[in-house]
Amino acid sequence: MPESTNTAITAIARNTSGASIVLDRITKTYPNQSVSAVDNFSMTANPGELIMFVGPSGCGKTTTMKMINRIIEPTSGSISIDGRDILSLNANELRRHIGYVIQQIGLFPHMTIAENIAVVPRLLGWSKSKTADRVDELLATVQLDPGLFARRYPRQLSGGQQQRVGVARALAADPPVMLMDEPFGATDPITREKLQAEFLRLQATLGKTIIFVTHDFDEAVRLGDRIAVLSDQSQIEQFDTPAEILASPANEYVASFIGHGAAIKRLSLIPVTDAELGPVGDAAAGTVTVNADDTLRDALDALVLTGLRAIAVVADGRNVGSITVERISTVLGADSLDSVTVGRGASGPAGEVS
Ligand code: ADP
């Protein structure tokens, strides 16, 4: 017998850490359009995974994502969360258990911050005291002092603070799945970097399953467990970890999306300790050091900045070895530049290094 809508939604809601999401051959053709916006898209997100959809404007990222909370209904195909077919459930009910954060934030201007965060708990019939406790807890989670912010209105907050409230609101009912549509896109670069770092810290403890849409490849590399590089009609050109995509782009399209500096971007994903460290004595004492949990990009930065040949690597206040440009290159497997073309010479003759 098919499961009732209520039972299925309750089961999805009960799982407050990540749920699996399976999209199976979903297609969306908008009315009066001859070409589908999304054509035959299949993907599985594992519980707790943060998956980035990256691709140029108009390629179908948002349409694909909005089919998961059924803001857009697929023309064909199936979608399940935790093994439950969500297309057969009540869409409004379902949406209360899927967090949703958008670039425009979408806070209600006439409601206080506390009221904005409490929208879904109220719809779910939570008691006043449980809701109030949750609001305070969430404001603290997104680093806003409840005493200062709960009773303010959205216009009294900066863009970055409003975006934090947007994240808090999406987390209100502790949904297993979050959909995020360019959530940090409208903020300035410094605020964006801060929000990204906070968000990563938050996700490390929450373990939600997240689909995150961006057109910014660097953001995808920084945040994603896996990245889906999409082209027109939401075709998956490559779906893999950031490190794997940077190391082995599947085709020219993916390579062009990575842009310049693939090697440097890779270094930012690799801890210093992945390199074979040199002897402690190779680095001049008392000079600049890097920490063992820094990345190879940090180490390279320090080497370039100081012009030193070797820099000491420190763990728990103790020198544990030294790092050089050669040792960093070895990690990347770039031991021969004979066939490597970098920078603007990408279309030039092989072997040219510009
Ligand atoms: P992205 O998020 O990658 O920018 P979208 O999913 O918004 O892409 O759009 C994919 C394609 O579908 C685009 O060609 C866009 O013009 C079209 N599209 C989006 N929304 C609608 C709509 N409501 N009606 C008709 N076409 C649409």
Defining key terms:
354 residues, alpha/beta, disordered C terminus, binds adenosine-5'-diphosphate
Describe this structure in words.
Helix content is 35%, strand content 20%. The chain is globular and about 70 Å long. It starts with a helix and ends in a 22-residue tail after the last helix. With 354 residues, it is of the alpha/beta class. Helix 6 packs across helix 8. The model is unreliable at 345-354 (pLDDT under 50). It is built from 15 helices and 13 strands. The chain has a six-stranded mixed sheet with strand order 6-7-8-3-9-10. A four-stranded antiparallel sheet has the order 2-1-4-5. Strands 11-12-13 form a three-stranded mixed sheet. The chain has helices at residues 5-14, 61-66, 91-95, 113-117, 119-123, 128-141, 146-149, 159-171, 189-206, 217-223, 242-247, 252-258, 262-267, 296-306, 325-332; strands at residues 21-28, 38-45, 50-54, 76-81, 84-85, 98-102, 177-181, 209-214, 226-231, 235-240, 289-291, 311-315, 318-323. The structure holds adenosine-5'-diphosphate. Adenosine-5'-diphosphate is lined by residues 30, 33, 37, 55, 57-63.
